Amino acid sequence: MPQISSAVHIEDFYRLAPIFVACFFGILVMVLDPFVPERSKSALARLAVFGGLAALFCVLLSAEHMGDSYPDLPYTSLIRVDYFSVFMFLGIFTFAVLAMLGSIDYLEREHMQHGEYYALILFATVGMAVMACAQELLTAFVGLEVSSIASYILAGYRRNAPKSNESALKYFLLGSFATAFYLYGSALIFGGAGSTQIEAIRESILHQGQTDAGLAVVDPRLLVLGSALVFVGLSFKVAVAPFQFWAPDVYEGAPTPVSGLFASGPKAAAFAIMVRVFYTAFGAMSASWFWVVWSSALLSMCIGNLAAVVQTNVKRMLAYSSIAHAGYILVAFAANTKLGIAALLFYILVYALVNLGAFTLISHLGDAGERHVEIQDLAGLGRTQPLAAACMSLYLLSLMGLPITAGFMGKLYIFQAALNAQLTGLAVVLAVNSVISAYYYLRVVRIMYFSEPAPDRTTAPVPYAVGAVVLFTTVVTIYLGLFPDAVRDLAQRSAGALR
Predict the structure, then answer these.
(1) How far apart are CA 386 and CA 403, in angstroms?
(2) What Rg, from alpha-carbon coordinates, does the chain have?
(3) How many C-beta neighbours within 10 Å does residue 35 have?
(4) Where are the chain's structural domains?
């Protein structure tokens, strides 16, 4: 018997190895930080990046030992490592590694190179990973809070910049409201279904009205109200309308590499738990939430794109763009089909990688103090730094959805899912908004190539770490635009693991 118990613990360690490894390196960096002299702080950055890569490598262990925890362990019914979890692990830990790499030279330039920054990214990533594999609402809440608390600090990391302080305060206050909505909604769901476990909620809904022993009595009114509050809480986190108003200020005020992280990891993790709650647990009650998601998708696409048209700051433009893209993702979610969830997963991965590349490049081009993050500051970049301009153009064209880019394939899959689910109206709105987005994306391209650079404007050569992030995201953007089948198949297998 002791041997079986030992084997069980090892199996669970394998499943959660990426989370444990990221936690270990986050703690290690925090412990070592006070003992490392200022001139050697970059060594902690390299250690943190190594920890992120180690956690990413450990996703292979998770993939080889997928399944539920054993009945005699405390993890039982709280987590589930399946194809969906593994897909999200791959994305989340990749985003973290790229964000840390893109931050190294930025922090050196801003004289903010401290180990705590990288530890916070690792801890935020741990929270995102917990959300991705959570099978229970309160477990997801724990992951949400771990991620959020670290993110609040990261948003205000430029302590001497008023905009950064404003960013952190707004993010904290509105994030707290979102958490309250989520937690109260979870309590109502518990009252309505007698459980906070996703599978138990699903079974209770599917068998409501039956009197079999072991099934809780379902109160549909509490479930509808509770699911609505959970949706509001998660909508704040993914910045979809009408709960998107915090995003532009937070993205603008936060350090630029952190803005890139916010546009990728937390958004992906929040969509992951949204899928588990509404697609898996409340799939049988889709009639109660379909029109809410439909309306939010419509508003997000229109508000995000129309507001982005008038922006002059690159970070604010990309923030409003992120709202629009969250609306595109909701179109796939509204389909409530396996194809729709697969399209959602593919698009999240594509969008996050493109945004990380764009924000990393902007963090380099912005110079010290982020003095040059206006769109006009990119004037003449095609002449002064042609490779940087080419990569930025590729990112913008991918966000627009131009063929041969990953963004085109992502939107194509969403169109296919929407049309198969007979969501013709949303598909038309998506197409119209893609045309609108072409205006502000191509405006940046025009300024980079057809405007004269400022006479006193000089930009340092691209550092190796920034170059590595830009190279990786550029190659992936083109590769997934030309050969998307492998990732698409993995996304479809991940979607199939949910029901």
Answers:
(1) 22
(2) 22
(3) 8
(4) 2-496
Beta bridge partners of 374: 313
Least trusted range by pLDDT, from 198-202, 343-347, 440-444: 198-202
Angle between helices 137-155 and 162-193 (to 10 degrees): 170
Mean pLDDT, range 455-465, rounded to an integer: 76
Tens digits of residue pLDDT in 107-121: 888 888 888 999 999
Residue of 232, 236, 252 lying closest to 244 (CA atoms): 236
Q: What token pair was written down for 439? A: 């205006």
Q: Is the pLDDT of residue 279 over 50?
A: yes
Dist. CA 312–CA 441, nearest whole Å: 12
Q: State the Cα–Cα distance between residues 379 and 287, nearest whole angstrom.
A: 50
Q: The tokens of 482 are what?
A: 């030309």
Give me the residues paired with residue 136 across strands. Answer: 197
Cα gap 278→218, rounded to integer Å = 17
Q: Helices in 194-255 by DSSP H: which ranges? A: 198-206, 220-238, 247-253
Q: Cis link prior to 255 (omega < 30° from 0)?
A: no
Structure tokens, 224: 């509808």
